[in-house]
């Protein structure tokens, strides 16, 4: 029976996040979190805002922000503490201030694209879908832009997610030849958008090599009852089992689940930091006037920098810089601290400075250095 393909008799329906995380670990299970709930709430608010702009045919509707935030938070329970109302309003207000609706290109918001494959029915929801070609609205598009709004502060890698959405667009419209993806981190006003451009052929090759091949192997193992053991990986932080799974990454296991837990953990950090500062101050006082010690290959004590740059002839340095067309102003204002290393080295060669000046002792620890007799 070589080559026989074992697949489920009923095709599963899978969203993008499930596909991505199950390809990392076959034991992954989706879990809820307040951060995810707040993200969903912002997506709902952004959807209502853009739809209001489209309804009134205006590029901005700043006056509607308060009403939209109220509707998003309270028209249906969203699992978010109402104490975060002002945070949501501030984020939507920033979004409305920094984003025009760009109605000319807008196809729709919160667009769910579905593709039926041999092994599963796959879908993903696009926060915004734009048309980039010059065709009429009733004609199939040849170039589109997929936008996903991110509510976390860090600009993380979302390559799989954006390629998955881009491939869904190509599979939905056979006419699409190019897809531009934008991961828009709405908390960040500057440099918050990560943009990629994808060609149709390369996207479909990636879809086959990664998504379809990976899913086929996964589902065939499930039919045979041969699931691989749990593995720690990128999916851990989104898995409901991360606190109990022995394979979960330590960093993921430590992530707080609720706001209350995060606050308690932060208070622990403050106590630990205060204790650290007290211990460091005590050591600093103890070693005042005493020789340094070496502990676990670290030297601790009042240590003199091994090498320090210092100007020995300020007027000569100014004349040297001015004579070579360099601006002496940074040197004069801060005693040379803003000069480049190249200029500092030149001043040493000119006899106006030294790089062997013994700096002032500083209480610190550093990697210990040993002479031949100390090893």
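Q: What amino acid sequence fits the structure above?
A:
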């Amino acid at each position: 029976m070589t080559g026989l393909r074992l697949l489920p008799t009923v095709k599963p329906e899978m969203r993008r996040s499930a596909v991505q995380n199950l390809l990392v670990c076959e034991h992954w299970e989706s879990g809820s979190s307040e951060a995810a709930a707040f993200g969903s709430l912002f997506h709902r608010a952004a959807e209502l805002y853009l739809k209001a702009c489209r309804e009134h045919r205006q590029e901005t509707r700043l006056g509607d922000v308060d009403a939209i935030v109220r509707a998003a938070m309270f028209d249906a329970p969203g699992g978010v503490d109402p104490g975060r109302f002002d945070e949501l309003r501030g984020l939507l207000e920033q979004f409305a201030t920094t984003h025009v609706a760009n109605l000319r290109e807008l196809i729709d918001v919160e667009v769910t694209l579905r593709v039926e494959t041999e092994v599963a029915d796959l879908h993903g929801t696009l926060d915004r879908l734009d048309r980039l070609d010059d065709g009429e609205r009733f004609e199939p598009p040849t170039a589109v832009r997929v936008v996903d709004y991110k509510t976390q502060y860090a600009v993380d890698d979302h390559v799989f997610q954006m390629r998955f959405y881009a491939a869904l667009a190509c599979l939905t419209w056979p006419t699409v030849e190019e897809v531009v993806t934008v991961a828009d981190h709405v908390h960040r006003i500057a440099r918050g958008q990560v943009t990629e451009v994808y060609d149709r052929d390369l996207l479909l090759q990636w879809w086959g090599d990664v998504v379809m091949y990976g899913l086929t192997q996964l589902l065939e193992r499930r039919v045979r009852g041969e699931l691989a053991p749990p593995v720690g990986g990128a999916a851990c932080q989104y898995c409901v089992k991360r606190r109990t799974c022995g394979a979960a990454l330590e960093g993921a296991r430590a992530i707080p689940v609720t706001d209350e837990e995060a606050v308690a953990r932060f208070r622990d950090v403050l106590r630990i930091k205060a204790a650290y500062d007290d211990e460091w101050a005590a050591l600093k006082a103890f070693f005042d006037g005493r020789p340094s010690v070496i502990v676990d290959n670290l030297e601790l004590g009042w240590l003199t920098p091994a090498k320090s740059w210092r100007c020995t002839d300020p007027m000569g340095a100014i004349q040297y810089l001015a004579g070579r067309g360099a601006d002496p102003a940074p040197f004069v204002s801060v005693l040379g601290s803003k000069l480049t290393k190249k200029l500092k080295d030149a001043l040493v060669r000119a006899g106006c400075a030294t790089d062997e000046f013994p700096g002032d002792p500083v209480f610190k620890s550093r990697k210990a250095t040993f002479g031949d007799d100390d090893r």
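Q: And what stands out in the fold?
A: The mean pLDDT is 86.
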